[in-house]
Design a protein that fits this description.
The chain is built from 2 helices and 4 strands. The protein is mostly loops and about 100 residues long. It has a domain of about 60 residues. It is globular, with a radius of gyration of 15 Å. The two termini are about 25 Å apart. Bound molecules: protoporphyrin IX containing FE. It is found in: Membrane.
Length: about 100
Amino acid sequence: MNPPAVLLLPRETIRHCKIGGDNGYDIYPKTRILVNAWAIGRDPKSWENPDGFYPERFEENCIDFKGKHFQLVPCGAGQRICPGLAMGVATVRGIHIG
Ligand code: HEM
């Protein structure tokens, strides 16, 4: 709900793409992109009752924060994913992640 980094590291597109369907947005090559991890984490299209604090919502699915599930990206994803992810998690909850 409250990712420490609201915006991920800036990206630059390398080719044209379209998001949001045929009437969506054209994103041209060499466009700087800011991914809003905070807004993604509160998107009602991905999360039921997104502003509610229900940790148990994670008990019924496999969604985690390690960059493979794009509806939850507190540590980013892809080539620029946080390299300190494992250290951060170990510090926060005192265990080793696989
Ligand atoms: C719970 C703790 C942490 C969180 C939530 C966090 C979050 C993030 C996020 C969101 C990014 C941007 C990723 C992206 O744009 O895809 C990032 C990048 C980065 N983080 Fe962390 N981080 C944490 C801990 C750490 C720690 C402990 C270290 C170092 C010991 C670290 C070092 C870095 C570095 C160097 C980058 C930049 C990587 C690059 O430029 O490609 N982070 N982090």
